[in-house]
Structure formats: structure tokens, C-alpha cells
Amino acid sequence: MEFKFTVENHEKVVKLFDNYPTKKAAVMPVLYIAQEQNGYISGEVIKEVSTILEISEEDVMGVVTFYTMYHQHMPGKYHLQVCTNVSCMLRGAYDIWEAVKTKTGLKNGETSADGLFSLEEVECMGSCGTAPMIAVNEDFHDNLTKETALELIDSLK
Ligand code: FES
Predict the structure, then answer these.
(1) Which is the most buried residue in 3, 20, 33, 108, by most CB within 10 A?
(2) pTM of the complete model beyond 0.90
């Protein structure tokens, strides 16, 4: 389905250009606005962002695939990001990861049939001091154990 920024979001994008030396340098916040509008970064979003920023679709795709904050599929109502990087791993992240997969019945990158949950294993989210952690949409939940992680999932239903 074709993607175009809403008038309001297009204004936000144009305003962003004042803060960057080139249009290309604004690719991350522009993608973020697009994702907020569309729910995820589709091929049509990539096309539109590349047109607006006057860069190639490959350049946009490179950013989308590098950063876990950009979704390439429609996420669930609750997008669960489980960090398994070093600090979290040393404090039991893989136990949490396995428990969350079992609890939700999802594998990495999947969304539940009812659209409630999507699941993603991620690299460090910058919350190492309070590892292990899970992000639910934009909210970080820290110092988790397997038990409190499962309680967290239950609280979302
Ligand atoms: S290693 Fe998990 S937040 Fe840094």
C-alpha cells in the first residue's frame, strides 16, 4: 500500500531539516516519524523516505536493518524486546528469553495471531546497569528474573 506522510508529519520532517547539515543526516528521525505513522517500515515507507531525503532506497534500508528500533513487520500491541547481550546474559537473560518464548509461544521476530505480542531478541539497549531487562514498546523493565519477567507478560494481557 502506498505510503505518504500526513500533512502534519510532512511539516515535522521539513522542520527537521533545519537541524541537520544534509537531508540524508536526518534519516533516523524521519524514519521514526514514518514508523509512528505507519506502524512499521514497509517497502513503500522506504521508497517515500528515500525520495524525500534524496538518497537511495539501499541507504535507507541499511539504516532500517541496522537498528532494532525500526520494525520491518507490523509489531504486536506489545512489542517485547529481550536483551541477551553481555551484561544481561551474565545475569540470566537467556533463562528469561527462553521463558518468554515459551510463555508467548513465539519465536524471534514473530507476532501472535491475535496481534497482542511480538517478540524480538535484541542487542544492548543501554540499560546494562540494571540488567537483565526487557523493553515493552518504549518502556524499560529492569532487574528482571525469570519469574518477574513472566509476571510482566501476564500483566499485559
Ligand atoms: S547488555 Fe542488556 S541492556 Fe546492555
Answers:
(1) 33
(2) no
Query: Backbone phi, then psi, for 139, in 5-degree steps?
Result: -100, 130
Locate the ligand 1 atom nearest the alpha carbon of residue 132 and give its number: 2
Q: DSSP letter at 111?
A: B
Q: pLDDT digit string (tens) for 144-153?
A: 999 999 999 9
Determine whether the shortest distance from the Cβ of 135 to ligand 1 is under 6 A: no
- Give me the domains of the chain, ranges plus CATH numbers: 7-66 (1.10.10.1590), 78-155 (3.40.30.10)
Cell of 72: 520491518
**Dist CA 33 CA 10 (whole Å):** 9
CA of 12 to the centre of ligand 1 (A): 32
- What Rg do the C-alpha atoms of the chain give, in angstroms? 17
CA dist 10 and 71 (Å) reads 20
The answer on pLDDT for 107 being more than 90 is yes
In this structure, the strands spanning 117-122 and 78-83 are parallel
Instruction: Identify the DSSP state of 74.
Output: P
Distance in Å from the first CA to the final CA of the chain:
31
